[in-house]
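Hi R.,

As promised on Friday, here is the backbone we talked about, encoded as structure tokens. Could you run it through your design pipeline when you get a chance and send me back a sequence?
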């Protein structure tokens, strides 16, 4: 914990300088959104707000950085309540239905926002945004997050606060080896580089395995069904697939695109390490750090941790020694439309007894001044989501090719694909997870997809096709629901 506290003190010092206000010395018009939030929040000094956060590393932000600093600046105490990610939606709904007022600030997975907003769980934020002058800074959030993860049917229900996107990491030393490049060009007729299509991914991966295995395999991907379902969502749309017929709301995942993706995934497993079907985040991450695979696709923390960022921080002591720190290349995944898998938006619970204090806290956290510091906390998992995060000279100097990392995340923040968002989205996603489990179990791919369609159609009818269509059409109309 000592190293975390040292890091926190350094960040606190810079943060305090960014937001400290000498009473009466700064005209209101010149104040930043962070300044305004601090000043307004002082009237609630002595209040405690309850913040629901995903358990694990995420809460180290409000526990060791933003929470203590907010209390120092405003007198408002932040009580962090942790929950495993799969339980957050259920706990949020239960608290609302019980009228318990258990939570003030909510971390909302963006594709669950329509469900929560239409159920009345989330407080509309438009009036607060206008009152405290946050609209201009909201426009500085990267468009893919701002235009897709903030509103439901035209109203603001959350501030995009986490730039989750699945990008490609690869071994530059292997890809740029002259002998390897020449052999690959002779075999396939094009230059070796980050794959632009999933066909190229298969060819490059097979080539690398043939040349380097068992020391190094061509790739290792997220194959555990809970993670792999995001990869399926991305690849299905990259191949031209649509989830539903917009007029009838009949599922169409058993199309030619769905079958192609399932068959490609099966073929890829043949040249990946044995047991890859059970790989989740940790297995793929550890294999990449060890230099055992030439490529992987995963969340942004892989890119900075593999480069050694945060080394020596007690909270990251579980991360093995990286053997690829100076060998990492960053690129968009094949198809150039990365999945914006999971992510978080900051919202206010409609049942909160401290709505204004809760709002002011999330405006301050999400602001230009404070968010740039939060996304650089090595242990807190908040990924860049504002234009200023990608261009920050400080962040771009954190390791030798941090600029390439941030440029790739910025590109992903322009072309990334939204997670499917529906009423009871978790039930539709569970169908994909079960389908992938059956795929790894040896069932026929077309039969699996046909069964998935039947399952989805039954669920849609149970929810109400017109109710579901309203939500789906709103989601599908957003710029990043499907590739342009």
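Update: got your reply. Pasting your designed sequence below so it's all in one thread:
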């Amino acid at each position: 914990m000592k190293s975390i506290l040292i890091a926190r003190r350094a960040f606190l010092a810079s943060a305090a300088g960014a937001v400290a206000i000498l009473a009466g010395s700064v005209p209101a018009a010149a104040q930043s959104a962070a300044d305004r939030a601090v000043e307004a929040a002082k009237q609630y000094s002595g209040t405690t707000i309850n913040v629901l956060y995903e358990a694990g590393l995420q809460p180290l932000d409000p526990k060791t950085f933003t929470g203590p600093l907010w209390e120092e600046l405003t007198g408002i105490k932040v009580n962090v309540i942790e929950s495993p990610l799969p339980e957050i939606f259920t706990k949020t709904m239960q608290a609302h239905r019980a009228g318990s007022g258990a939570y003030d600030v909510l971390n909302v997975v963006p594709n669950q926002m329509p469900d929560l907003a239409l159920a009345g769980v989330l407080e509309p934020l438009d009036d607060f945004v206008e009152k405290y002058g946050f609209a201009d800074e909201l426009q500085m959030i990267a468009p893919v997050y701002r235009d897709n993860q903030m509103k439901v049917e035209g109203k603001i229900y959350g501030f995009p606060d986490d730039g989750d996107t699945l990008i490609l990491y690869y071994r530059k030393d292997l890809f740029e080896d002259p002998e390897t490049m020449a052999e690959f060009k002779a075999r396939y007729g094009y230059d070796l580089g980050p794959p632009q299509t999933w066909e190229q991914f298969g060819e490059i991966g097979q080539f690398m395995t043939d040349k380097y295995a068992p020391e190094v395999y061509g790739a290792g991907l997220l194959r555990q069904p809970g993670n792999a379902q995001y990869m399926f969502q991305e690849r299905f749309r990259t191949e031209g697939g649509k989830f539903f017929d917009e007029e009838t709301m009949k599922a169409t995942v058993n199309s030619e695109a769905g079958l192609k993706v399932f068959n490609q995934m099966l073929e890829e497993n043949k040249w990946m390490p044995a047991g890859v079907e059970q790989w989740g985040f940790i297995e793929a991450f550890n294999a990449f750090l060890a230099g055992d695979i030439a490529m992987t696709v995963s969340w942004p923390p892989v890119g900075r941790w593999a480069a050694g960022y945060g080394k020596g921080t007690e909270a990251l002591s579980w991360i093995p020694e990286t053997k690829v720190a100076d060998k990492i290349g960053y690129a968009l995944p094949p198809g150039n439309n990365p999945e914006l898998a999971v992510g978080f938006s900051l919202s206010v619970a409609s049942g909160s007894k401290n709505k204004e204090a809760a709002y002011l806290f999330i405006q301050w956290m999400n602001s230009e001044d404070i968010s740039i510091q939060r996304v650089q906390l090595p242990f807190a998992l908040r990924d860049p989501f504002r234009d200023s995060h990608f261009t920050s000279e400080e962040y771009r100097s954190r390791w030798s090719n941090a600029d390439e990392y941030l440029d790739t995340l910025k590109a992903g923040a322009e072309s990334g694909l939204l997670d499917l968002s529906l009423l009871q989205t978790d039930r539709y996603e569970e169908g994909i997870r079960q389908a992938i489990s059956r795929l790894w179990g040896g069932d026929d791919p077309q039969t699996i997809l046909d069964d998935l369609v039947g399952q989805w159609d039954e669920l849609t009818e149970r929810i109400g096709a017109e109710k579901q269509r309203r939500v789906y059409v709103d989601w599908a109309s957003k710029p990043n629901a499907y590739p342009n």
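One thing I noticed while checking it: Residues 445-463 form the longest helix (19 residues).

Thanks again,
M.
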